[in-house]
Amino acid sequence: MEHKIEDDHRLTSDTYTVWDLEDGRAVQKEVPALTAINMRLRDDYTRDAAGGVKRWNKIIEKAGVDFELKLPHEAFNRKIGVFTGGLFDPEGKVVSGAEYDAGQSQWLPTHADGDFIQSLMKPQYEPGKFARWIAPPKVGIDNKTGDFEYVQLYMA
Predict the structure, then answer these.
(1) Which residues pair with 22 in a beta bridge?
(2) Confidence (pTM)
(3) Phi, psi of 81 (to 5 degrees)
(4) In this structure, what are the phi and psi dihedrals at residue 140, rounded to the nearest 5 degrees?
(5) For the chain, which residues score pLDDT lower than 50?
(6) In this structure, which long-range contacts are made by residues 11-19, counting pairs with CB atoms below 8 Å and at least 24 apart in sequence?
């Protein structure tokens, strides 16, 4: 999609809007585009991810579930870059250490969440059966039945 970008492709006189930290607050400012290439790539990635989130939200809404997925502000939970060491909630608001600690279990997966996910990950080796976390296909490869043995293991 590079042809859709309105710049001279040398970035000598162009600018790009990035987030920065000033006086403990997240602010947007214009910087030379050449120094913001990584931010531009990350923004492209975020826009792509937002499209996926939008599609998931349509599925959730269609199922009648009162819930919406949202991408967090880019300052949230950052371990590198300008927001390193800052404490921000998922909306990008600066929070105290106590507020961050109190919200962390609501905002990020916990060890208990990981343990639960691992408890679901039970392998299934029987032909025609599927692991609990995998939905069986409507039709198999080349219209084969669900119990078709696609992989045959031979022990020497």
Answers:
(1) 25
(2) 0.65
(3) 85, -165
(4) -80, 180
(5) none
(6) 11/37, 16/40, 19/74, 19/75, 19/82, 19/83
End-to-end CA distance of the chain: 51
> What's the gap between Cα 154 and its chain centre?
40
Residues 6+ apart with CB under 8 A from 80: none
Residues 56, 39: Cα–Cα separation, whole Å: 25
Contacts of 75 (CB under 8 A, 6+ apart): 19, 21, 26, 83, 86, 88, 92
121: amino acid identity, one letter: M
Q: CB of 132 within 8 A of CB of 138?
A: no
Quick count: other Cβ atoms within 10 Å of Cβ 87?
20
Report the pLDDT value the prediction gives residue 9, as an integer from 0 to 100: 61
User: What amino acid occupies position 64?
Assistant: G
Q: How many residues does the chain have?
A: 156
Within the chain, residue ranges assigned H as helices are 37-62, 97-107, 111-120
Q: CA separation (Å) from 127 to 27, 114, 156? A: 56, 28, 21
What is d(CA 56, CA 97) in angstroms, rounded to the nearest whole number? Answer: 32
